[in-house]
């Protein structure tokens, strides 16, 4: 089936999204209520108390899907015009899955300062900002600079991906009966997704380590000591980019990669082929066909392989399984175990909007991942995450995110 041709034909017939009204103008009275003079009372109310904009306008349920077209899907830098169909598709998912009014906004600039300023200028209209398909490392700077807007801002290529990867990993580890703190993890790709996946896994490992410490102290009636979490002492995580491992011998690392080296404390320097030996987990967010049969065969027994490059994964799932991988996942819908960020972002924003969260915290993301994982009661090698089309996903994720937002006290007063 040629999905591309079908997509072209469907768009020629009609637009994917459109703006529609919830009120009907059938009389002069309607016109007076919904426009002038009645609308002036709404404007004066908001001018007097700006916080009421969330109660009286579209802001309470709207998200801007913002892109500069610099890193679109597997297409790369195709510009704002080329990015628009993808942002329309994203807006469609927001609407259909989460009931959120989302608008595609493609900016004709790749200057980080201009993007930051533009988002700040349009923020009064929106209850949330979904940054999308903006290349690294600028995406990190842009997202960080927008965290004080008073509304949730999230770069989905980073955090949506990381949440679903963590959810899948939680269940994959159950299938192979391994603990994350005993695993060697190899991540291929040190761009937006790779950075976020690494950081979220470390945060999750930190939480699980502290939980285990509390449990041991409780069982032995010991006093809990202050946590001295050290990622490198608990599990080994190595990131790779196109030039090799993000290691201490590299002199060409940008700021985001230097930060990754600092938090992982990796000592290994070498190729992916060398570094993957005896690894328990491979997570690919990089390029097609870079993982070979022999490389998977060199991994530890009952290996987990998440090959998520799109549209062609780092290794064909059949080859990975034949080489000994126990659990295999990709980003594609035509294979089992699809790691798709559409499982995360609609529910994350739904939950954040519902409780009027001012930002999305790491605990909210971990809560979303754990909620997704728990939807699969008995994980198997072929089923570690729910389907994107499961109607319960958004409600489950939204509830977990809302609860975490309240616990983190990031709710608008």
Topology:
Elements: H1 3-13, H2 28-34, H3 39-48, H4 53-56, E1 62-67, H5 79-98, E2 101-106, H6 112-122, E3 128-131, H7 138-145, E4 153-155, H8 156-176, E5 184-188, H9 192-219, H10 231-234, E6 236-241, E7 244-245, H11 255-264, H12 272-275, E8 281-284, H13 293-297, E9 303-307, H14 317-322, E10 325-330, H15 345-354, H16 362-374, H17 393-407
Parallel strand pairs: 1-2, 1-3, 3-4, 5-6, 5-8, 8-9, 9-10
Antiparallel strand pairs: 6-7
Helix pairs in contact: 5-15, 6-7, 8-9, 8-16, 9-11, 15-17, 16-17
Attribute tags:
single chain, 413 residues, alpha/beta, Rossmann fold, 2 domains, six-stranded mixed beta sheet, four-stranded parallel beta sheet, 17 helices
3D architecture notes:
The structure is a single chain. By secondary structure, the chain is α/β, with parallel strands linked by helices. The protein has two domains: 3-151, Malic enzyme, N-terminal domain (Rossmann fold); 160-341, Rossmann fold, CATH 3.40.50.720. Helix content is 45%, strand content 11%. The protein has helices spanning 3-13, 28-34, 39-48, 53-56, 79-98, 112-122, 138-145, 156-176, 192-219, 231-234, 255-264, 272-275, 293-297, 317-322, 345-354, 362-374, 393-407; strands at 62-67, 101-106, 128-131, 153-155, 184-188, 236-241, 244-245, 281-284, 303-307, 325-330. The strands form two sheets. It has a six-stranded mixed β-sheet. A four-stranded parallel β-sheet has the order 2-1-3-4. α8 crosses α9 (192-219). The termini are far apart. The model is unreliable at 226-234 (pLDDT under 50).
